[in-house]
Design brief:
By secondary structure, the chain is an alpha/beta fold. It contains nine helices and eight strands. A hairpin with a 2-residue loop joins strand 3 and strand 4. Helix 1 packs across helix 9 and helix 7 crosses helix 8. The protein starts with 7 loop residues before the first strand and ends with a helix. It is found in: Cytoplasm.
């Protein structure tokens, strides 16, 4: 990849497909900024939950995001999410916030606010960005678009193991699978910027692929196209 050229890499896909893990590794390999867009929606959900606002209440959420302050900072090569000045990186990974994030992402005013922040970041530097609608809506002119997917069983297993590693032990594998099925339906059926594969995206089914295999495949595509 030409290091003097500004590039944008969009990685989309359903929950548990490995988007964040892969995007982080790509950003480190290429030494470019990684932006976890899902974390931004989680921050909105966390604020709503703290204020006892139903994460499906569009009217209240629309008002909530008018004065919300979400910052993405990179400290020691790690992305940290700040909500109204507070580092909430480790507070936004609970099952409750996961469901809430999928709910708030349906609200047009919430998405417009988050996309505004995301596009501003991408306009200033090379980025790898993952989410649900990066290639189709946030960065429609991205240099390279990837759509990651995997079987529901594999995605549930990955997410469950992630939670165990983070010390979250009060949910079962079946709970995680049901959570992902809910989010799949929610993300794919929302009216505004739904989860979808961009026409010019390269689809990768990672069910039987290791993380290294996926990363190497994408790095090869980047080398060819960027």
């Amino acid at each position: 990849m030409d290091s003097s050229k500004r590039v944008s890499i969009a990685i989309d896909g359903p929950a548990g497909a490995g988007k964040s893990t892969i995007a982080k590794m790509i950003s480190k390999k290429l030494k470019i900024v990684y932006l976890d867009t899902g974390a931004m929606y989680r921050a909105v959900a966390l604020k709503a939950i703290r204020q006892n606002i139903d994460t499906r209440d569009e009217e209240k959420l629309s008002k909530l995001v008018k004065d919300i302050n979400i910052e993405v900072r990179h400290i020691d090569e790690e992305q940290r999410i700040y909500l109204d000045g507070e580092d909430v990186t480790n507070l936004i990974r609970t099952p409750e916030v996961s469901i809430g994030a999928s709910n708030v992402a349906v609200v047009p005013e919430v998405r417009l606010k988050m996309v505004e922040i995301q596009r501003e970041i991408a306009s200033k530097c090379s980025v790898v960005m993952d989410g649900r609608d990066i290639g189709t809506y946030v960065l429609p002119n991205a240099t390279l678009k990837i759509f990651l997917t995997a079987s529901i069983e594999e995605r549930a297993k990955r997410r469950y193991n992630e939670q165990l590693l983070k010390g979250i032990t009060d949910v079962s594998l079946e709970d995680v699978k049901n959570d992902i099925l809910y989010r799949d339906k929610n993300d794919s059926s929302r009216a505004f910027a739904p989860l979808a594969k961009a026409e010019d995206a390269v689809e990768l089914d990672t069910t039987n692929m290791s993380i290294e295999e996926v990363v190497n495949k994408i790095l090869g595509l980047i080398e060819d196209q960027c």
